[in-house]
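Researcher: Re-running this chain for the archive, since the previous output was lost when a drive failed. Same request as before.
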Amino acid sequence: MTATAIASNITAPTQFLKVKNETYAYRRFGVRNGRPLLCLQHFTGTLDNWDPAVTDPLAVEREVILFDNAGVGRSTGSVPSTIAAMAMHALAFLDGLGGTTCDVMIAQQMAQDRPSIFRRMILVGTAPRGGEDIMHLEKPRLAKYIQDPGLQGYAPLAKIFFALTESSQAAGEAFVERLMQRKQDLDPASGPNVAAAQMASFRDWEQFTGAHFAELKNIRQPTLVVNGVSDEMIPVSNSYWLSENLPNAVLLTYPDSGHGSLFQWHESFTRQVTAFLASDSPFAPY
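Model: Regenerated structure tokens:
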């Protein structure tokens, strides 16, 4: 195994890949020993929103690839307004890298569109198509902090990604401090156009036809489903539905935590993910 020269998202340079009419921004770092882990970002998040306490431990044993979808960060193009269009851009990016076969974090639609290139999946703080209460940021609990002019930069994330307990809020403040370690080569923050398009994709994702959650039955990859029990952005009930309807899934829930459970419980999360990805078992448990 050979390590890349850069092994941290704090210092990994942003790279650019031109595929057809778009140019995608990405970072890759860690140990290149075969199948990389592709990481897809949360609502309005850019490459800079990945917590090094999550990405860097995972990069000790594998290569990690962080990706800005079209119109986000320094990627060109228009921000997709459907999950299906987001998946098309992510698959085009993988094709541009050279037909990479990978594990993927947060990507149901991609697994349905092209299952052959994914071995294992990790679904964190997400919902199945037809799920409930997906990113309704107008809720008073969330709007209070999103609209607070006194909270600048990453500060709102510490409020809306974490439970309103003293311990979870302390974890949120530590999370923000870690994000601020990267000082150069930063992405521009997402603006209203990014938020509006992504919100449209969430409203579309809440709609479904046919039997509820039926399409999940076609995703055969071993899947690790993760969420915080107090997630207000995408409630944990959606994770229960994922684990119940995916034929090869295991569910991991974290106490005293919200949408950012992987950041609050980063030591446990990276340990669990490392073991999950290292397994050669065709089944989700490890």
